[in-house]
Design a protein that fits this description.
With 320 residues, this protein is α+β, with helices and mostly antiparallel strands. It contains 8 helices and 12 strands. It folds into 2 domains: 180 residues, Cupredoxins -  blue copper proteins (Immunoglobulin-like), CATH 2.60.40.420; 88 residues, Cupredoxins -  blue copper proteins (Immunoglobulin-like, Sandwich).
């Protein structure tokens, strides 16, 4: 089951951030309890008989000295606690920077309104490939993610694996993380980026090393040739219509770069950056009228005859 919980760390970065959070929480709880206890004691000391008129008396010299001592002690203790929080924060920052990057996987993520482009980098150009709205990583191996923004400010956040990192147009940022156990971890944009900010999600899927290697090799293969008359008809519609102007399918003449790469689209769990599940019915609805499902997206409606729509869906479902 996908996880999206900063307090259930699946990697060292999130664990260190979680420790800082718990330390801050319990320290603040202790301070709050102490303040409430002091307030209760003061109210108890100041109680008067019912109906008695308050008769303020001038404080004695001893009482004034005691009050000054209490104030000084409170200021000193507050300063020490704040310094403790500062030290814990600095120590956490240092720990976040100690992740070993030997043999790290290099990934480039570009945020668009409102989807995520994911590129797996490699010194060999023939081993570079792209996917969208899904980041697959190997368990136990460090990952360096280069973060870019195509249009407005976005923010990369996978709560189970690390904290937030802003993505600012014109600037390049990086984030390092590691997943220590297999699973699917939900990431989201953590910076308001427009109409569909709330529906800009992605999955980080951590696989054992052997399964990741197999997945990576599969991603390097071009799209399979469609089998069956309907799928072939859908393939023809894709390449002769407007789809190829924005989308890419490796192994075909479609090489668009303004929308998600669809080479292995059918293997993804969702459509529209987590908006709807990737099913035949949902895919048909998305092609017909994406604005109805996710208002503001750049993809236009495609009012196709029912037979052509069914053929296009069947072709896209072969892209695994």
């Amino acid at each position: 089951m996908p996880m999206n919980d900063a307090l259930h760390a699946a990697g060292p970065q999130a664990a260190w951030i979680g420790q800082l959070w718990w330390f801050t929480l319990w320290l603040c709880v202790a301070v709050f309890v102490a303040l409430m206890a002091a307030l209760a004691w003061a109210l108890w000391r100041a109680r008067r008989p019912a109906g008695a008129m308050p008769q303020p008396a001038p404080p004695s010299a001893g009482a004034e000295r005691l009050a000054r001592r209490w104030v000084s002690a409170a200021v000193l203790l507050s300063s020490l606690l704040l310094m403790g929080l500062l030290a814990a924060s600095v120590l956490t920052d240092q720990r976040l920077a100690t992740l070993s990057l030997d043999g790290a996987l290099q990934i480039r993520v570009t945020a668009h309104q409102w989807w995520w482009e994911v590129e797996y980098e490699d010194p060999r150009p023939d081993r570079v490939f792209r996917t969208a709205n899904e980041i697959v990583i190997p368990v136990g191996r460090s990952v360096v993610i280069t973060l870019l923004a195509d249009d407005v400010i976005h923010s990369f956040w996978v709560p189970n694996l690390h904290g937030k990192k802003d993505m600012i147009p014109g600037r390049t940022a990086t984030i390092q993380l590691r997943a220590d156990r297999a699973g699917t971890y939900v990431g989201r944009c953590a910076e308001y980026c427009g109409l569909q900010h709330a529906f800009m999600a992605y999955d980080v899927v951590a696989l054992p090393a052997d399964r990741f290697a197999a997945w990576q090799e599969h991603q390097l293969t071009p799209a399979p040739e469609p089998a069956g008359a309907a799928a072939r008809r859908g393939h023809e519609l894709f390449l002769t219509g407007s789809c190829m102007l924005c989308h890419a399918v490796q192994g075909t003449s479609a090489n668009g770069r303004r929308a998600p790469d669809l080479t292995h689209f059918a293997s993804r769990a969702s459509i529209g950056a987590g908006q709807i599940a990737n099913t035949s019915q949902a895919l048909a609805q998305w092609i017909e009228d994406p604005q109805k499902l996710k208002p503001g997206v750049n993809m236009p409606a495609h009012l196709l005859p029912r037979e052509d729509l069914a053929a296009l869906v069947e072709y896209l479902e072969t892209l695994r």
